[in-house]
Design a protein that fits this description.
The protein contains 6 helices and 14 strands. By secondary structure, it is of the alpha+beta class. It folds into 2 domains: about 80 residues, Pseudouridine synthase (2-Layer Sandwich), CATH 3.30.2350; about 180 residues, Pseudouridine synthase (2-Layer Sandwich), CATH 3.30.2350.10.
């Protein structure tokens, strides 16, 4: 800081009509998105046209650039394959909605700004239907069950979300697709899109997602009695949170055509599902959701 052309101490007291000069340092350089030269897994493209793309995201892939992931995200993988993306906001080109890093499944990508605006409006108006398959501990007393509880950030851990009275309204509808010894396969339909919503709501309801490292509430240790050993085997067979975006329904932002996409239970969670079902239910993980009727809960609109 300079006062009247001279460098001044921080303790300098100013008087009226003195000239004060302050130099502000330049902000950090804006990061430019560019496709990496190598190292990213190829993407599974379920559908693509000039306006949008639907992908089946693998678990372990971060959706958009963030601290610690500046060049290894879904956005970079899309750029690497030459996919044009809408301008987006906040360094999230093309991203209409997100999935957690360790959640797999269907995602909608906008390739033009017009498509992004229309899809964003449809999402806000709850005209894009998303259904998730989850393996969760315990048993719901009724199906369907409606979990309606506001969600906000934890005051002690900014990376963790909790149900809190002053949070944002959130609703999840839960259907039991398969009832097993110590856990259930669920269909979870979103009526809102809060961060970690399904994981937070199921934990709040007392049925956390199997393998969830944040909201598991004890995991297999919450199971007592003769089912404890089975729960431990299921947990060992679950390499990550057992949550998968299995169904996506929406109207095309340009043509208005009704589009429906489905994704089966992921291969890396196959052993967990087989272990959960046990010998009473013979299920092939590759077609488990279809076999168990997951997609029959769909209501056309």
């Amino acid at each position: 800081m300079r006062v009247n052309g001279r460098v001044a101490r921080a303790s300098r007291l100013l008087v009226r009509k003195e000239l004060v000069e302050v130099e502000f340092p330049e902000g950090p350089a804006v990061r430019q998105l560019a496709p990496p030269s190598s190292g990213l897994r190829p993407l599974t493209i379920v559908y693509e046209d000039e306006a949008l793309a639907v992908i089946d995201k693998p678990a372990g892939l971060v959706v958009h650039p963030a601290p610690g992931h500046w060049d290894d995200t879904l956005v970079h993988a899309l750029l690497a394959r030459g996919t044009p993306l809408s301008s987006g906001a906040g360094g999230r080109p093309g991203i209409v909605h997100r999935l957690d890093r360790d959640t797999s499944g269907l995602m909608l990508i906008a390739k033009s700004d017009l498509a992004h605006r229309k899809l964003g409006a449809a999402l806000a108006a709850r005209q894009i239907q998303r259904a998730y398959a989850a393996l969760a501990w315990g048993h719901f007393g009724a199906s369907p069950a409606v979990i309606e509880a506001p969600i906000g950030r934890s005051p002690t851990d900014r990376k963790r979300m909790i149900v809190r009275a002053d949070g944002r309204a959130a609703r999840t509808d839960v259907y039991v697709v398969g009832r097993f010894g110590v856990c259930e396969l669920l269909r979870c339909e979103l009526h809102s899109g809060r961060t970690h919503q399904i994981r937070v709501h199921l934990s709040y309801a007392g049925h956390p997602v199997v393998g969830d490292p944040v909201y598991a509430a004890g995991g297999s240790r919450r199971i007592t009695g003769p089912g404890r050993l089975s729960a431990e085997r299921i947990e060992r067979a679950t390499p990550r949170q057992a949550l998968h975006a299995a169904e996506l329904r929406f109207r095309h932002p340009v043509s208005g055509e009704r589009l429906v996409f489905a994704s089966e239970w992921p291969a890396e969670l196959g052993s967990a599902l087989v272990e959960a079902a046990g010998t009473e239910v013979q299920v092939d993980p590759a077609s488990a959701l279809t076999y168990l009727g997951f997609f029959r809960f769909r209501t056309d609109d």
